[in-house]
Amino acid sequence: MELSIYNIKGEITDKKVTLNDSIFGIEPNKHVIWLDVKQYRANQRQGTHKTKERNAVTGSTRKIIRQKGSGGARRGDIKSPLLVGGGRAFGPRPRDYGFKLNKKEKALARKSAFSLKAQNNAILIIEDFDLEIPKTKSIVEMANNLKLNNKKLLLVLPSQNKNVYLSARNLSNVNIVTASDINTYKILDCASLVLTESSIDAIDNLFKVREEK
After folding, report:
1. pTM over 0.70
2. Distances (CA, A) of 105 to 36, 40, 54, 182
């Protein structure tokens, strides 16, 4: 897949780039995408929820009413879940929601997400750029020039760039990520995927290294 390269002024340059078909041109596996997104969202959960069950509620253990003959439910003490102020029956307890996903499945999920964006013409390539000072206006102008100001975009950089990150962190529709930290959820959670020239090589190398391992 061959795409034109834009500069930050929104102008098409005379350069083109060919995307790797093994990453951007495969048949998307939607089930693996679902698994990877599910794992990502599960890992974001703190899992610290907890309610007091009857063993954690303060109260007397004296039996309130006799076992039979009252016409109502049996109640051992005032901590019974049947009574107001009693313990919660089968309430949530702290737990880890994470689960295992194989490396090859995660790699396939990312490739499938890239391919979906390519099929939907939602990938834009721009020249490598840098900012002398952090300035939000610079990122806003770049998005306007690329006609992406009203879309949620994900800008992929080859490595950490503090000035670019600081310039974009106050913008709700712009996310910055390095090629090594990109994941399936972030790829799918944007309307436009903006890649710099160097980030394409970084993505290619990232998958090559993981395939060799």
Report:
1. yes
2. 8, 13, 43, 15
